[in-house]
């Protein structure tokens, strides 16, 4: 690394007035506009649009099984119960995403599930508590030889007894908070434009030629220049996070380091993507890399949920989706941190940067 090249690159970015418009003014403006226009899409009714949970169960005792089947039918609409023959089948269905949870009633109740959201956990727990209490009541009635209908609750009574306790839930994101995170994530993708012009303008102004006659190796020049732009990107992300916390009350403080790493990893991977595409496709005024970059940015933003919420499958196809899913889950649930956004994007950064270095280092004309 060469400190002079890093500092020079950083100063050039600070002097470029368009950077302030492109990476600060535009994102903040769109946060206000989209947050205001799409407020109706976001509400605090966390259960209204949820798909019913699929819970598979196995009950060893025949009497308990009959009571469970009768009582669990009252939960239809929130939870769909399916009986399985053994634990192996139930767990296999969870792994294959055909079921959300597996219950085994024996001497005790065993619950195994996929990684549920905070809301899903609370709903499942609320229904199970009420179901178990009703099973105990009915078992007591049968032991005392009372009439079978004694104490049996109706579907309406059962549903009313279920209260989704949200005291320990964090509030869901508002439209402003959603688009604050989405616009930061979207606009750091445009650091690929900086990557595309990283050495193009330097060649035009003769800067690269002057650096090549110094004792510095090509690798040092490339890594130092890239580092200068990357540090600038880190500062941009930091400023946007601080501004969005102040203006839109985005709770970055709940998981600041994790969120920051996700966003700079995304920024770095697209900075490296721009450099790579410039290296292989933007030679001799062909500008192939520029066209590919625009397509990749739009697809990544669309699939990742930058413009509007998308499902988990679509988000999984986008580096931006990895980041948005991880950051939102860290800020608005108590689930364990998801590291795909960090590992995946830093992995892409490393592969693309090293590929560019190898190509440029071996190329006769830099």
Automatic annotation (TrEMBL):
Coiled coil: none annotated. Pfam families: ABC2_membrane_3. It comes from the Bacteria. The chain crosses the membrane at residues 20-42, 178-199, 220-246, 252-276, 288-308, 340-360. It is a multi-pass membrane protein. One of its GO terms (molecular function) is ABC-type transporter activity. It is found in: Membrane. Residues 20-322 form the ABC-2 type transporter transmembrane domain. Keywords: Membrane, Transmembrane, Transmembrane helix. GO terms for cellular component: membrane. This is ABC transporter permease. It comes from Enterococcus mundtii.
